[in-house]
């Protein structure tokens, strides 16, 4: 199944060159991509935010992916906007956008990030779509140019079928995803693993922390 989807995805790239159905380039990165303003509903539908900071002052970045699939299937302007949204996120990782401002009493800070990718809500049918495969290989694969900015990370709320998909996609997404620890849909299993490496007081309640479930800083 996955091999067939990848074959179709590669044919799609060859024929369409990463263009949408109406001929527009998906997520064309311009010099001011970091200043691009996404549609108002994007930060609510698929937010990413700084939950806190780890022991080395690296930003803990939560990324919720579950609501993106309908935009992939819709195509047109919605898909182009989603492409720009993800491209903007990738460029922000590379530019140090999430770097913690150094404390006046300390020069210890880092421009690295610790991502927590949350796959809650993604179904097998959505995941194995050609649209999703194309999008992941194009957009998320570009994180590899900032390999040194991501020392490790986590992918959580992954169903059994999704787990197979991610494992098979890893070589195509590059070395960044080799650094990611992947966990299923049982928080009682993966929360202790997160807490071994991340401070509990820097995580919200959904990920085993003592903060409430509101982000420290929503990114818009």
From TrEMBL:
Sorted alphabetically, the keyword list is: Signal
- UniProt keyword Signal, yes or no: yes
**Start and end residues of each CRAL-TRIO domain:** 38-215
Task: Report the domain of life of the source organism.
Answer: Eukaryota
Signal peptide positions are 1-23
InterPro entries per UniProt? CRAL-TRIO_dom
Name the record gives this protein:
CRAL-TRIO domain-containing protein
